[in-house]
């Protein structure tokens, strides 16, 4: 098993859920397919989905909900 | 009482604007900032600066507690909220006053009333300001609809009470169409929203957005003429003018007088804007809402009237009476403002945060650039994309358009993409030049327009 670390594609604010009253898109230990949404990044009031670039199991999130993120910063580990 | 130290509870270009007005009056400024804004221009220009939290606005510029603490600890005697953030938050305005400080704006009560759609509409009707004619709530009896529609005036819009975002809306051009559409609309509303309630409202197909600037001291109020902001994308204004080119003189007089009536009726204090829909085909105008703060596009009004609106707000907050009677305020020439946003117009307005490299700012007679940019500054991804506002004035609208084209050609912002390319194309567009636009025009035009990529090197679009 290899661990793949997804970098944040763009700078902004990271959200793990689509709205404050919604459950997170993915939790640790959830399975993901390529293209699954794992979070949102808000850049200048525009929301962009962050999608899994590999299939596997979520091992860890490196940032919390509503954390400020930089482009390239490690976001999530996926075990492939 | 005159103010000695103002806290600016905002960021970006409007913070810079407020600092300049305060300094012109010899007033000191405390600038609050988030961790992401430590090097912003307003921090550099202010006399003191206080960090109030992390980058996210919810934890900094929207954190009323943190802003109030900074105000108390720095010994400020007033708070200027700018626009956005806490500017129309009645509880914040009340908390500022309870802390013994002056809120530079209207009273919390005025903010609360005007922030409530129904209350604002009722206040407008009471002051004799026309509102969009409609059924005044849900239509209880479909049988009464034809007579009501005749009184409202065709075309009428049938709206599902439970709808929203443009869903559940039908437009009837005449009585026959209304009779055919009503039962259908009710059934559709019941099917789609589980509620068949409908209401009727006049449909303004080619609405223009006009708004009137007012200034009040809590007792008296004056208007400073109108602006037109019909060029919008996703309900965001991108280009504003003063005066509104489409208004006949008698309509302008009636519009501005109506705004003063409402401002006086609510004993308005500070700078405010009444927004209206204008139907160019019938010459009718309808009040939509009042913004109880300084607006982004206030400079076009300053350019045609010569009145520094932000400075007047501060003087009024310091206890001064209005320094102008209505007859003292004249409108001269024409002004245009374009919003320079950190967005790539050629790539669906994708946000473009980053670090600014070389910067060339337009200048010369009749040109003003309100911005927070400097060479080497950061444009953080956490806030809105407004980098600055390019404002031009000339004796005529044609002159102002020529000056705008010239000024846009001078603007160069390296490091981030800007919407300058969009404005360069609009300033050359025959329909824009003829003043024949409405609030849905820009989105229609963008569907077919070809904009050149990125303005980072100041290239013009055609």
Describe the structure.
The complex is a heterodimer of chains A (80) and B (462). With 80 residues, chain A is mainly beta. Chain A has one domain (3-79): RNA polymerase II/Efflux pump adaptor protein, barrel-sandwich hybrid domain (OB fold (Dihydrolipoamide Acetyltransferase, E2P), Beta Barrel), CATH 2.40.50. Helices cover 0% and strands 49% of the residues of chain A. Chain A has no helices and 8 strands. Chain A has strands at 3-7, 12-15, 31-32, 37-43, 46-51, 56-61, 67-69, 74-79. A 4-stranded antiparallel sheet of chain A has the order 1-8-6-3, with no helix packed on it. Chain B is of the alpha+beta class. Chain B folds into 3 domains: 5-102, Rossmann fold (3-Layer(aba) Sandwich); 142-202, Dna Ligase, domain 1 (2-Layer Sandwich), CATH 3.30.1490; 207-448, D-amino Acid Aminotransferase, Chain A, domain 1, CATH 3.30.470.20. Helix content of chain B is 33%, strand content 27%. Chain B has 15 helices and 22 strands. In chain B, β6 and β7 (167-172) form a beta hairpin. Chain B is globular, with a radius of gyration of 23 Å. Residues 455-462 of chain B have low confidence and may be disordered. Chain A binds chain B through residues 10-13, 42-46, 66, 68, and chain B through 36, 54-56, 58, 342-343, 350-351, 353, 381-385.
């Amino acid at each position: 098993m290899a661990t793949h670390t997804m970098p944040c594609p763009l700078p902004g604010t990271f959200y793990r859920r689509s709205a404050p009253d919604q459950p997170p898109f993915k939790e640790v230990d959830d399975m993901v397919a390529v293209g699954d949404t794992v979070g949102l990044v808000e850049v200048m009031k525009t929301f962009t989905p962050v999608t899994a670039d590999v299939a596997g199991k979520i091992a860890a999130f490196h940032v919390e909900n509503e954390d400020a993120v930089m482009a390239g910063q490690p976001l999530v580990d996926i075990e492939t | 009482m005159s103010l000695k130290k103002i806290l600016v509870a905002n960021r970006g270009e409007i913070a810079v604007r407020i600092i300049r007005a305060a300094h012109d009056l010899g007033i000191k400024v405390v600038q609050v900032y988030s961790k992401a804004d430590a090097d912003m221009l307003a921090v550099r220009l202010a006399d003191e600066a206080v960090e109030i939290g992390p980058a996210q606005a919810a934890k900094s510029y929207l954190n009323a507690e943190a802003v109030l603490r900074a105000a108390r600890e720095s010994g400020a005697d007033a708070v200027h909220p700018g626009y956005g953030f806490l500017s129309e938050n009645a509880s914040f305005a009340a908390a500022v006053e309870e802390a013994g400080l002056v809120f530079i704006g209207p009273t919390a009560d005025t903010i609360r009333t005007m922030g409530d759609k129904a209350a604002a509409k009722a206040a407008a009707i009471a002051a004799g300001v026309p509102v969009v004619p409609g059924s005044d709530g849900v239509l209880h009896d479909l049988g009464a609809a034809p007579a009501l529609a005749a009184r409202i005036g065709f075309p009428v819009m049938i709206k599902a009470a439970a709808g929203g975002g443009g869903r559940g809306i039908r437009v009837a051009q005449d009585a026959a169409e209304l009779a055919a559409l009503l039962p259908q609309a009710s059934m559709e509303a019941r099917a789609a929203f589980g509620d068949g309630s409908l209401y009727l409202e006049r449909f303004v197909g080619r609405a223009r957005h006009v708004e009137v600037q007012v200034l009040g001291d809590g007792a008296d109020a004056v208007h400073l003429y109108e602006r037109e902001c019909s060029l919008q994308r996703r309900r965001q204004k991108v280009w504003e003018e003063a005066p509104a080119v489409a208004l006949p003189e008698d309509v302008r007089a009636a519009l501005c007088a109506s705004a003063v009536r409402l401002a006086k009726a609510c004993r308005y204090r500070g700078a405010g804007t009444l927004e209206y829909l204008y139907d160019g085909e019938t010459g009718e105008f309808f009040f939509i809402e009042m913004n109880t703060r300084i607006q982004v596009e206030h400079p076009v009004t300053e350019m045609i009237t010569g009145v520094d609106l932000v400075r007047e707000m501060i003087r009024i907050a310091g206890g001064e009476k209005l320094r102008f009677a209505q007859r003292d305020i004249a409108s001269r020439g024409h002004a245009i403002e374009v919003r320079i946003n950190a967005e790539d117009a050629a790539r669906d307005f994708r946000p473009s945060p980053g670090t600014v490299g070389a910067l060339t700012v337009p200048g010369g007679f009749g040109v003003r650039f309100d911005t927070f940019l400097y060479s080497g500054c950061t444009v953080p991804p956490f806030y809105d994309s407004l980098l600055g506002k390019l404002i031009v004035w000339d004796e005529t609208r044609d002159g102002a358009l020529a000056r705008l084209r010239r000024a846009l050609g001078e603007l160069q912002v390296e490091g981030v993409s800007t919407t300058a390319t969009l404005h360069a194309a609009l300033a050359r567009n025959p329909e824009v030049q003829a003043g024949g636009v409405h609030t849905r025009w820009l989105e229609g035009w963008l569907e077919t327009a070809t904009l050149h990529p990125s303005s980072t090197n100041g290239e013009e679009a055609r």
